[in-house]
Amino acid sequence: MATGDVGNTPNANLWRSIGPVTELSKRQCRLIHSALGCNSDVCLFFIKGEFFALAARCAHAGGPLYEGDIEDTDGLLQVFCPWHDYDFNIRTGKSQTGLQQEVHEVKVEDGIVYVKHASLLSLQPFPPSSKS
Ligand code: FES
Question: Which residues belong to any copy of the Rieske domain (predicted)?
Answer without folding.
Answer: 18-115
